[in-house]
Write a structure and sequence with these properties.
Number of helices: 8
Shape: globular
Radius of gyration: 43 Å
Number of strands: 0
Helix content: 40-55%
Strand content: under 5%
Low-confidence stretches: 8-13, 15-84
Largest sheet: none
Distance between the termini: 139 Å
Mean pLDDT: 73
Order of helices and strands: HHHHHHHH
Length: about 270
């Protein structure tokens, strides 16, 4: 071999690429793994440049749904108690307590409810509607919660008392027993009330007051029974007359509770 040919062969060998620099596609060498930060990219990231390594792009695009679930947009978190779950005030107070008044306003439901059931319903309503349960930075939302809770309180106090319950029911039928001149004056009733007041003022001891309380409680119970009967038969004028009597006797009861020897009895009608 000539000297010229030998030099050409040596030059060719020096320029041949090394096998260790570029492995063949069939090589078992480990493929590059995705960069850690790619697993935390949000889908709405502002990164628009194309990734440099195609192997990384392939790994990112072939993630299993379970692995990529955290990449999905997060839905808005609901509040602790959506306002839609807070009880709203129905047409009447009676409908707010369906266990105590299952058919709505009397006479469809009984005029006198079970007071323990009524209180249980009230506590459940307040447990949902109380403002402390729905405190938010929005003043409008807090005001709404306060209003709902206050109305539930008013409804409960109204229906708990036979007198307030009767007055509220009669208003639904256009009768306001508190308005002067609406009901005919019962002179016989007024005389009975004046006599009862004098007995309270002339009492000298607690035992005397206790006896008067027993008598007055019987008057109240009798009025409630007659009121129930009138409401059950939809005799609203008679129910109004019984409500007036009940109001007088309940006022006498308040005078008995606040009795002090020698202190005059002030009745508010």
């Amino acid at each position: 071999m000539s000297m010229k040919c030998r030099n050409i062969l040596l030059t060719t060998r020096r320029l041949r690429p090394s096998a260790t620099l570029h492995p063949s596609p069939s090589s078992s060498a480990q493929q590059p793994t995705p960069l850690p930060y790619l697993s935390t990219l949000h889908p709405h990231s502002n990164i628009t440049s194309k990734p440099r390594f195609s192997s990384t792009v392939t790994a990112y695009s072939t993630l299993q749904p379970r692995q990529a679930s955290h990449l999905q947009p997060h839905p808005p978190q609901p509040s602790a108690q959506p306002l839609s779950q807070v009880p709203t005030l129905p047409q009447t107070y009676f409908h707010l307590f369906p266990l105590s008044f299952p058919h709505g306003s009397p006479p469809a439901s009984n005029f006198t409810p079970d007071l323990r059931t009524l209180r249980s319903e009230y506590l459940r309503l307040q447990a949902v509607a109380h403002p402390d349960r729905h405190h938010t930075p929005t003043s409008t939302s807090n005001t709404t919660q306060d209003s709902i809770s206050a109305n539930i309180n008013t409804a409960y106090k109204t229906l708990q008392s036979p007198l307030l319950r009767a007055q509220y029911l009669l208003l639904q039928h256009g009768i306001d027993v508190q308005e002067e001149g609406v009901m005919e004056e019962d002179k016989e009733l007024l005389m009975e009330v004046l006599e009862a007041r004098e007995e309270i003022e002339e009492a000298e001891s607690e035992p005397e007051i206790e006896e008067l309380k027993v008598v007055n409680n019987e008057r109240v119970e009798q009025c409630v029974k007659e009121l129930e009967r009138a409401v059950g038969e939809s005799r609203w004028q008679e129910a109004g007359r019984m409500a007036v009597r009940l109001r007088y006797w309940m006022n006498i009861g308040e005078g008995l509770e606040g009795w002090e020897k020698g202190k005059p009895v002030v009745l508010v009608h």
